[in-house]
DNA sequence: TCTTTCTAGTTGACTAGGAAACAATCCCCG
DNA sequence: CGGGGATTGTTTCCTAGTCAACTAGAAAGA
């Protein structure tokens, strides 16, 4: 009777398409950031510090969907580049606070412009309202599944 | 005058949300596959071999959006697990052909079921027609931007 | 108080992948 | 033919993450 078990195709999974597009967008973005000597994770890290003066590594790890270990090393790199500084916390000697240094702060608008350009490049193929819909759907998944994350790949 | 330069937020970029969701979906999937001792890349690799009997590493690299070097190592791992085999190509002594071994072939339906479950878990929060729309939008980006992602039709 | 337990951040071992150099082989053109 | 360039797959080195063990300090409880 030739009973072939039904095996779903790769293309039938939204996760597959999501991964394909996301990897591409991130790789494209990474390439643009390369000229600025910054990675995607570093951009996200700096953009977060730009808004919130006082951020702890743990909070950042949570917000970026990365482990504390990864944040620790990421911070090392940014400190080495003189874009970020670590400040000891007075209240709690274990804790620290991360902050942008002036050079880092000055860099953020430039990187933001690259992010804008990257988004235009990849999502410009969609109509305005399609972009709105995509945005809505992605946010819905994030909120319904309660994830706080952005990683980098 | 206080001319603050406008710095776009992380959340204003579709790439940001895409990355957030995609990473989450993939991490969730990776965790499910872990019990089977397989990675996401290995699943994709095997699923492709499942359909097309004869695939060269280069084609696979193209289809999976990875470098040939990465495919070479990925193949090494799968060969080591006895799921895949390399066959020399008769016509061209440089070339080779990758094929699933019986153990690998037997594994695919199980992994496909996990992929189905993962998709349900993450995208089940959307309505049926929202999923259709998301699918459409992602495919549109892939086709308009000519991403390598699998010759689909 | 002092001791146990928890929390913040760091570190080391390991993994997957990219970039580029490489060897083998093929192909084309003189 | 035969030699220069393309192409196939591998390899080496590097980067950026994870996980789990670790250190230092804080907190809670007897």
From TrEMBL, chains A, B:
Domain annotation HTH marR-type: ranges: 11-143
Biological processes annotated in GO: response to stress
Cited InterPro entries: HTH_MarR-typ, MarR/SlyA-like, WH-like_DNA-bd_sf, WH_DNA-bd_sf
Alphabetically ordered keywords of this record: DNA-binding
PROSITE patterns per the UniProt record, alphabetical: HTH_MARR_2
Pfam families from the UniProt entry: MarR_2 (PF12802)
GO molecular function, one term: DNA-binding transcription factor activity
PANTHER family for the chain: HTH-TYPE TRANSCRIPTIONAL REPRESSOR YETL, TRANSCRIPTIONAL REGULATOR, MARR FAMILY
Protein name per its UniProtKB record: DNA-binding MarR family transcriptional regulator
Native source organism of the sequence: Mycoplana azooxidifex
